[in-house]
Amino acid sequence: MNAIETEHLTKRYGPVLAVDDIGFAVPAGSTTGLLGGNGAGKTTTIAMLLGLLVPTAGRIAVLGHDMARDRFAALARMNFSSPYVALPSRLTVRENLIVYGHLYDVRGVSDRIAALARELDLGPILDRPAGQLSAGQKTRVALAKALINRPDVLLLDEPTASLDPDTGDLVRTWLEQYRAETGCTILLASHNMAEVERLCSDVVMLKQGRVVDRGTPAALLARYERQDLESVFLDIARDRRQAVPA
Amino acid sequence: MRPGLRRIWGLMYRHLALYRRSWPRMLELAYWPVLQMCIWGFTARFLAARMGNPGLIAGATLLGGVLLWEVTLRSQMGMSISFLEEIWSRNLGHVFVSPLRPFELIAALIGMSVIRMLLGVMPAILLAWGLYAFNLFTLGPVLILFFINLMIMGWAVALGVVSLILRHGSGAEPLAWGVLFGLAPFSAVFYPVSVLPAFVRPLAYALPTTHVFEGMRAALSQGTIRWDHLAAAFGLNLIWLAGAAWLFARQFHAARVSGALIAIGE
Predict the structure, then answer these.
(1) A75:B97 CB<8 A
(2) Are the CB atoms for B105 and B48 separated by under 8 Å?
(3) Count of beta carbons in the 10 Å neighbourhood of residue A209
(4) What is the ipTM of this complex?
């Protein structure tokens, strides 16, 4: 069963074709990477999956709900994290999590916040304003917000951007554990190829708004005869080499 | 609590938490209404001292106008600025990908508007009572109907402002502070509609606020309740609010098509 399905998804801004007739499916319980250079259409695709953006054409279904007609039913079971969307900086971490606990209709929100604080080591910063946190702390808080409703589908836009290697590794380890424990489906947009190789069971490669390749990291490495995903990414981005036919 | 009510409360809690830890924001709420009351209160006292009984009535009309106009203004600003707070904190992306429905967002903004209006206007009302012996509550229960109409008008204008912000981004921000002042001359806040030029009067009578202020003057000077003006105010408010809701729905959809929701703070 697929948690996310897109068919003929297209987004046009006037003369600019940002997403060009793409289609992909994300199996339930998997972690799928959405890769591509700047302007490849990753953010536009994620915005359409979240209902922030209306597609010019095509269809999106999340957890069986058609996003054009029934997006709120899907949104209640989804969540999202991005370092580029902030939380109110004057509110404390606890207040922010209470707000989103209510917005997602979480029952027993205090208990949920306590559990997240334990799991993500937020205890010492729960009552500090969100604007006074370090980049690593903000990332953990953003993850706590994204997990407040125990989502079945989690969309992550560069979740470890601007983190030091240690904190980045902690976040990746935690995401692996969370997916294994809950069966959550994760769609990950990232420029960190090592992260994608580690976390993702499937990869969708975007270029100029189109899906140019897809498969497991191992299959992509074999197809492009490369040792790492970064080389595959560069091959695709720079049109250096075609995949070797199987 | 029902899920919809919880979501509305969640968004209101976000603003209440912000005000709780920001005394400049609390001060700003009451600052202008109190300042206005000081200026016009002394003016009214001066008129009463010079003109006797007619001056007393003119002064009371002036103070009533000041206080009731603040109800509209603070209701409009309370709603518009609460929406702007989400833009300033770059938080709208998270809000719009939550299950919060657009009408729940509006309900939360209205809730904050009522709280902000009461916190802003009540000190001015008490000041008018204590300093100038003008008790707005002597208008009686009809005052509640005046308040309701003035608040609805404020919300309708605020919805229009929010719609323009959705369409034009932060470039439309200044409207949140200034737009309602453009309607003040036609709302007959301090003078009767009959003072206005004949060609302007139809515009004045199309504003719900005009009927409230005409009703207020009748209550203060003659002690009568003008139900015809109140009915007109309610009817016009329905039209204004429906028009503003239509505009909001249209602009919200347009923002989802154009991608403005993603880049609204830029």
Answers:
(1) yes
(2) no
(3) 22
(4) 0.89
Which pair of structure tokens corresponds to residue A86? 């902030």
pLDDT(A134) > 70: yes
Distant-in-sequence, close-in-space partners of B147: CB < 8 Å, separation ≥ 6: B68, B71
Are A78 and B257 an interchain contact pair (Cβ–Cβ within 8 Å)?
Answer: no
Contact call for residues A122 and A16 (beta carbons, < 8 A): no
Strand pairing partners for A79? A154
How many residue pairs bridge chain A and chain B with CB atoms within 8 Å of each other? 95
Strand order in the sheet with A16-27: A16-27, A2-13, A57-62, A65-66
Does B11 sit within 8 Å of A105, measured CB to CB?
A: no
Cβ under 8 Å to A: B residues 8-27: 9-11, 13-14, 17-18, 21-22
Residue contact B94–A145, C-beta within 8 A? yes
Which residues is A59 bridged to in the sheet?
A7
Return the domain boundaries, chain B.
3-258
Q: Which of A43, A91, A103 sits opposite B98 (nearest CB)?
A: A103
Amino acid letter, A109: V
- Are B256 and A75 inside 8 Å of each other by CB? no
- What are the CA-CA distances from residue B113 to residues A49, A88, B11, B184 (Å)? 32, 19, 13, 20
Q: Give the pLDDT confidence of A147-198 residue by residue, as tens digits.
A: 999 999 999 998 888 788 888 888 899 899 999 999 999 999 988 888 999 9
Please answer whether residues A210 and A20 qualify as being in contact, where contact means their C-beta atoms are separated by less than 8 angstroms.
yes
What are the backbone angles phi and psi of residue A78, rounded to the nearest 5°? -115, 170
